[in-house]
Amino acid sequence: MSGTTALSAEKAEALMAAAEEARKNAYAPYSGFAVGAALLFEDGRIITGCNVENASYSLSICAERNAMTTAVAMGLTRPTAAAVAGPDGVFCPPCGACRQFLAEFNGAMPVAVKDAGGFRVLSLEELLPSGFSLKGE
Ligand code: THU
To answer: Is 91 helix (H, G, I), strand (E, B) or coil?
Structure first.
């Protein structure tokens, strides 16, 4: 594990375990690339999501956005950390769209990203420098 350490190792591991669990439910018959995501909230709740693909490929949704929209529907809009898990041995950071989507809710949170050696913790700020904002600079 390397990078930002604003997230304790214990919490990062629990969050990554939740992402791995959600990954088991991924619906990815087209790409075969299953992804799970987990978001931690201040009250300790962890909300998860997986990627859900569609025969009309562009309708597919990523695990991170799936988790975030589920959280919002539950009234949770301020995640304090995230974890993303893809296939074993693959570094799996959130895609650009998911970075922007998550930054809407907390642009500075740590993101545990599965990699070939386990996982590393990056900050969403370093993953999305100069993200779009209606406020400008
Ligand atoms: N995918 C995610 O779920 N999250 C990402 O951040 C990147 C990609 C999914 C989308 C698609 O179902 C599969 O991975 C292959 O691109």
So the answer is: coil
